[in-house]
């Protein structure tokens, strides 16, 4: 049987990500935080760019340890700005630190997994789109997530970023109907 993938998965790195990660329900605290941070870094760029730099991000941001990131000082921020292996956007780097701080604060009352998954009542939403062009960039749910995350102190969490995160983490399954990985 020939494997059919969603139309966006064309390059080897994208295919590997599509086949092994995208749209699969993710409920591991550490991996969910990593994916969230990567999605915020992707804002305005394409996902392939982020995937090619993923290992560099892991190294630069202490394997996405939120407790460490939340305590980054000005010297660490300046070091990150000089790191050619990541996207050196001042606002995005500051947002990673801010998001780690908001994450740490959130942990005082609940896990990040419980917080994120409550938006879909802890069950993935299975959409049935025939083509990738039918898949929305924003939904009412991603608008709600965006607003709530902003209230909790997170940044770079617009509704488009939130929806991309929901897709990536499997809160919504937007694999097209012909995709054999559905």
TrEMBL record:
Keywords: Metal-binding, Zinc. Transmembrane segments: none annotated. The keyword ATP-binding does not apply. Zn(2+) binds at residues 6, 18, 175, 179. Gene3D superfamilies: Hypothetical protein, domain 2 (1.10.340.30). InterPro entries: Adenine_glyco, DNA-3mA_glycosylase, DNA_glycosylase, Tag. GO terms for biological process: base-excision repair. It comes from the Bacteria. GO terms for molecular function: DNA-3-methyladenine glycosylase activity; metal ion binding. This is DNA-3-methyladenine glycosylase I. It comes from Isobaculum melis.
């Amino acid at each position: 049987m020939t494997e059919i993938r969603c139309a966006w998965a064309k390059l080897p790195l994208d295919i590997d990500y599509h086949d092994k990660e995208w749209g699969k329900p993710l409920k591991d605290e550490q991996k969910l935080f990593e994916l969230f941070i990567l999605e915020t870094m992707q804002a305005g760029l394409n996902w392939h760019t982020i995937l090619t730099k993923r290992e560099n991000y892991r190294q630069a941001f202490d394997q996405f340890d939120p407790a460490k990131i939340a305590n980054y000082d000005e010297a660490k921020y300046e070091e990150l700005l000089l790191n050619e292996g990541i996207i050196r956007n001042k606002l995005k780097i500051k947002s990673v630190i801010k998001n780690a701080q908001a994450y740490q604060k959130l942990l005082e009352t609940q896990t990040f997994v419980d917080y994120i998954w409550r938006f879909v009542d802890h069950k993935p939403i299975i959409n049935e789109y025939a083509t990738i062009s039918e898949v929305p960039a924003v939904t009412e749910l991603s608008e709600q997530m965006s607003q709530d995350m902003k209230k909790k102190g997170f940044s770079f969490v617009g509704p488009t970023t939130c929806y991309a995160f929901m897709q990536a983490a499997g809160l919504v399954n937007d694999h097209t109907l012909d995709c054999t990985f559905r």
